Amino acid sequence: MYRVTVRQGWDGKETTIHSENMNSVKLLSAKITKDVDSIDSFAFNISPKSPQYNAFKYRTTFVKVTNTKLGKVLFEGRVLPTTDSMDSSGIFDKSVTCEGLTAFLHDSIQDYYALSNNDLKAFLSHMIDVHNRQVDSYKRMKLGQVTVTSPSDNVYKSIDDSKTTYDTIKEKLIDKYGGEIRVRHGSDGLYLDYMPEIATLSSQDIRLASNLLSLKRAVDPSEAYSVIKPLGARAESENETGDSEISQPRLTIEAVNNGSSVLSSQSMIQKIGYVVHAEVWDDVKVASILKSKGQAALDSQREIKEQFQVTAIDLSLLSGMTVDSFECGNYHQTINPLMGINERLRIVGQSLDICEPFNSTLSIGDKLLGQADYEALIKKQGEAIDVLKSRVAAQTAKIVTISNKLGEIGSIKEDQSTQDELIKELQERVQKLQEQTVGDQYYEGSIIDVSEFQGSINWSQVVSSGLALSVIRVQSGSSHVDNTYTANIPNAISAGANYAVYAYFAATDPSDAAVEANDFYNRTKAVVGSSKEPRFWMIDVEADSTSGTLSSSVTAYMNKLNSLGIPDSKIVIYVSNALYPSIDTSRTQIWIPSYGINDGTVANSRKPLYPYDLWQYTSVGRISGISGNVDMSTEPSARFKDNYLKK
């Protein structure tokens, strides 16, 4: 069903490296990852037995994945740096990561430009013209559908000359006005679309007992606020030398709000207490206008996030479709009466496993709820819980009835073999009913990582405020031992925290990396002793200190942990977007930091460029029990949750 081809150069001849035919050439593993607001990626492992093993050249080799049954291209993109590796049995393979065609927008930078009207299409057209002047002919694009519009009060837009075209579009258009972009093939080349949503409404339902195997819902009100502080443009002034001041205070609303700089919602204060949020309008210079904008934002805030995740969906057997028949970005009616769900939801992410299609998953996306929506949802969930209670009670009654029958079997004067078969059948029914009443349980709440920079931590408060996971630093290289880890680990354990440990990578070569790993292990074990073991051991790779041996050094670090009894399944790599292509990411789960504005909110953060199992979205998060800022992460993958967040 799936064919993967490779070609050298944009117009090169395509060669198959993974065939849809059963007994033909195959990749060792292959997975496509799609997200509505990130560049598509494709990662695979290929055997040295393949004639194309050494055919992958950075950025000039192109890979295409096609569903031959549907005649549909699932992915097309270029190759990033590859990694060769050997396992403990001496078997080699190559890990290849590819990025989608939208990444072409990273190959150009923008010039300074200013526009004083509301025409976003003209603004984007200028950026595409600048991009086209700098890149290869096959990377050039035409402007396609542009349907996002600018509010009338935003009349001035400018571009600096320090960022790529992709980053500029994200910052100047998507982050400010919303919307989504896509690069698509047209009959005469590539086109760039900019629309409020790249989506259509599908007629295919996702329904319990039809094609839906499991669905999880999480409601996160953590970004809701009850008090807003509106901030306008900075004052303009000059110092005595005539130079413009670097930083001036922003316009506030005291003059038109009885001397107060904030606006409050009493209904929200009753629900969540005093939670203050600052919102900036750089283009507003009149206090009365600023106040009206602040009030409108407070009244219409939709910061309560409702997330659905389809962790298992079998479409090929139950509905005649495959998981990649469902387009990322499209809407589907999703129905699960037991959870009170019957609504139109959007697919915001896909993980398509080419070699093991039944491992493919869909992420049914986040939506933001207003306060009224939130209260209605809580009521609906209460009604659904009542239904579940009734079902559990009915199942319990069945279990009791079956158990009574088991007790009566001894008095039945029947053939022994008949009795044995009946006992076996009844026991199987009991087991199935019991399994239906027990669901997976996970730690829910904040995911943080802490070190000596957080000072003394009140772990009881941290846990009681809602903690899913805390990752505690043990060392920075071998030379610096974290000043607080000997207190943090036992105190976290005593407070009942779900925890893991990490070490900052500072090795200079593979031999030095093995020493760091050994010290990391010994220091952690000396404190943990016979207490609760960490859920995983994280290697924090933020800089290349190896002078060209980063990949082999990280591998040596992992191998040393393996030799000490820590398997790959208990190791996580934290790596920056910049270093991601330089290390082997195929052995373990990946944690990537990507901040964007870095104001402590997910909404204003920028997702990582590469596939991830956990996303660190800010370094200025706040949680009860820690007096200052703390790193916070979100969007754990299904396998991350199953391995590290399950109780």
From TrEMBL:
Residues 163-370 form the Tail spike domain. It holds the Pfam family Prophage_tail. GO terms for biological process: carbohydrate catabolic process; cell wall macromolecule catabolic process; peptidoglycan catabolic process. Keywords: Glycosidase, Hydrolase. One of its GO terms (molecular function) is lysozyme activity. Its EC number is 3.2.1.17. It is an enzyme of class 3 (hydrolase). Belongs to the glycosyl hydrolase 25 family. This is Lysozyme M1. The gene is acm_1.
